[in-house]
Amino acid sequence: MTTLALFDLDHTLLDGDGDDLWCRFLLRHGLVGADLQARNEQMGADYRAGRVSVEAFSDFYAGLLAGRTPVFWSPWQDRFLVEEIRHRLPDAARALVASHREAGHRLVLTTASNSVIAARTAADLGFNCWLATELAMVDGVYTGRVKGVPNMREGKLRRLRVWMAEQGLPADALERAWFYSDSINDLPLLGSVGNPVAVNPDAQLHAHATAHDWRVIDVLGKAML
User: Fold this and answer.
1) Is residue 59 annotated as part of the catalytic site, yes or no?
2) 172 is an active site residue
3) Helix, strand or coil for residue 193?
4) Could you tell me which CATH number the domain at 4-217 has?
5) Contact 50, 205 (CB under 8 A)
6) Per-residue pLDDT tens digits of the chain, which is 225 residues long
7) DSSP codes joined into one string, 46-98
8) Which of 30, 40, 153, 183 is buried deepest, with most CB atoms within 10 A?
9) In a 10 Å sphere around its CB, with 0-12 CB exposed, 13-18 middle and 19+ buried, how is residue 149 labelled?
10) Residue 176: Cβ within 10 Å count
11) Residues 85, 221, 86: CA angle, nearest 5 degrees
């Protein structure tokens, strides 16, 4: 039987938030207006508190790409990986992923970040399968809107179930699955797997994990709550 090992990305395997880092990267290189800095900071605070809407979060980061093509963004994605991401992927994170690979589990990275932000990181971590928020395009140009269901909160569980059906995996595979996450935003999926693990969790998730006797681990080398 297939055992799924599911991993969130930001603040779980990545020591940082990919969406925030991407926006700061674009600001630094003059690819978006300076007025977006304050909005980005507020978006991050609202996300961590679990109070931002899925639509507002997803559309804000999709909007950073609007009016440009995948060909335009490709070299910037490469630079982003080198400048901002690789040194924030600790050895412990890579080892955790490798441990499930060596156990013969099927690995899936599942992140609320959009595909442009997450694609290079997923590949660098060795994931052959990953789920992210998809982006709408018209005539090969990003519109600045999301395509389909954002891969966030309940949408993360919904998208995973669709993917499982496409892969011919039974619904009860979730009962054997592992899922690693830091965020209260991932509670719908954490509560649906047989092996939920809180990784350097935020305060709300830490409280929930403790109350439900979930495993809590440190992957990022930071003080636990």
Assistant:
1) no
2) no
3) coil
4) 3.40.50.1000
5) no
6) 899 999 999 999 999 999 999 999 999 999 999 999 999 999 888 888 878 898 999 999 999 999 999 999 999 999 999 999 999 999 999 999 999 999 999 999 999 999 999 999 999 999 999 999 999 999 999 999 999 999 999 999 999 999 999 999 999 999 999 999 999 999 999 999 999 999 999 999 999 999 999 999 999 987 655
7) HHHTT-S-HHHHHHHHHHTTTT--HHHHHHHHHHHIIIIIGGGS-HHHHHHHH
8) 183
9) middle
10) 14
11) 15
Domain locations in the chain as residue ranges: 4-217
Length of the chain: 225
Q: What's the rounded Cα separation, in Å, for the pair 24 and 28?
A: 6
Residue 7 CB: number of other CB atoms within 10 A? Answer: 26
Judge contact between 186 and 131, C-beta under 8 A: no
- Tell me how far CA of residue 28 lies from CA of 74, 144, 182, 186, in angstroms: 17, 20, 27, 30
CB 124 within 8 A of CB 23: no
